[in-house]
Design brief:
The protein has 5 helices and 2 strands, in the order ββααααα. By secondary structure, it is mostly helical. Strands 1-2 form a two-stranded antiparallel sheet. Helix 2 runs parallel beside helix 4, helix 3 runs parallel beside helix 5 and helix 4 crosses helix 5. The longest helix has 21 residues. It holds the Pfam family Cyclin.
């Protein structure tokens, strides 16, 4: 296993396992690493908060990531599926979450059920190219 680098210093394997960033880390009930469940939970909470605020007369910026309808899969199911079939490291999902946050901050957009899945798959792909290739 490669060492994770945090603030210019290599993290010990025990640190990676504590954060759920290694393949040997604790698995959740569904069989995916705990860190992925935490990322899914954070995204789902953000979607719920933003959709409640948007119902209270807030005008959202429409981005190229917006779909016309909400996908059938929940964020948790979507992350599980990507993890199962993509072969991405768990670190990619954490970096993807950071990419989504930065994109939304720079564009003034908000995470909703119409754009979350597309933003997620795009950011995971970019993170995998950066970290896993």
């Amino acid at each position: 296993m490669e060492n994770l680098v945090l603030n210019g210093m290599a993290a010990e394997p025990e640190t990676c396992m504590a954060f759920g960033l290694s393949d040997e880390s604790s698995r959740g009930v569904s069989g995916i690493p705990q860190v992925l469940l935490l990322v899914a939970s954070a995204i789902e909470k953000s979607i719920m908060k933003n959709e409640n605020l948007s119902n209270a007369s807030r005008k959202d910026a429409i981005t190229i990531f917006h779909g016309s309808r909400t996908p059938n899969l929940s964020i948790k199911q979507y992350i599980e599926r990507i993890f199962k079939f993509s072969g991405c490291s768990t670190s990619c999902f954490v970096v993807a979450y950071i990419y989504i946050s930065k994109f939304l901050l720079l564009t003034g957009g908000h995470l909703t059920s119409l754009n979350a899945h597309r933003l997620l798959i795009t950011s995971i792909m970019v993170a995998a190219k950066f970290l896993d290739d």
